[in-house]
Amino acid sequence: MNKLKTTIIVIAMTIFGAEVKAQNDQTKIDPQVYVDALSNFNLEDLSADTVLFTQIGKRNDSYEVGKKDISKFIKLKYKDKQTRFEWQSSGNSGRAIVISQYARNSRIPIRFFVIFLSYTDNRIVVIEVEENK
C-alpha cells in the first residue's frame, strides 16, 4: 500500500514539475510591440478573432469586440492628441502587459490598459481599462 502511495506521489510531482517547467520555458514577449500598436490604435494584427474588452470603474462594462473593430473601438473611446502611452510592467513571461496612458506633460497616468495575451499564439484576448481617478 505504501509503495502505491509513493508511486502516485512521484507521478503527481513529475507531472506538476513538467507543467511548471513548460510555463517557465515560454519565450518572453516584447511589450514594446503592443505599446506601439496601442499608441497608433492599430491592434488588428495582434488581436484574436474576438477580444473581451472590459472597462473597470464606477460601472464595470464588458464587450466582445471583433478583431476588425477593436482598433476603432479603442480609438473612439481613448484617442486624445494630448496623451501618450508607455509600458508600465509585464508579468507571466510578458503575457500580461500593463500600459499607462499619460496626459502630455504629466507624470501621473490617467488610465491603465492591461492586455492579456494567449499562450498559443500571443494574440490579445482580453483588454481591461481602468481610469485613474
Helix content: 25-40%
Tell me the span between the first and last alpha carbons: 61 Å
Record the strand order, biggest sheet: 2-1-6-5-4-3
Could you tell me the strand content as a percent range?
A: 35-45%
Q: Main sheet? A: 6 strands, mixed
- Output mean pLDDT: 84
> Helix- and strand-based class?
alpha+beta
Q: Could you tell me the number of beta strands?
A: 6
Uncertain regions spanning at least 5 consecutive residues: none
> What is the CATH architecture term?
Roll
SSE run: HHEEHEEEE
What gyration radius follows from the Cα positions, in whole Å? 19 Å
CATH topology: Nuclear Transport Factor 2, Chain: A
Number of helices: 3
Which of globular, elongated, flat, extended, rod-shaped describes the shape? globular
Domain unit count: 1
Query: What's the CATH first level?
Result: Alpha Beta
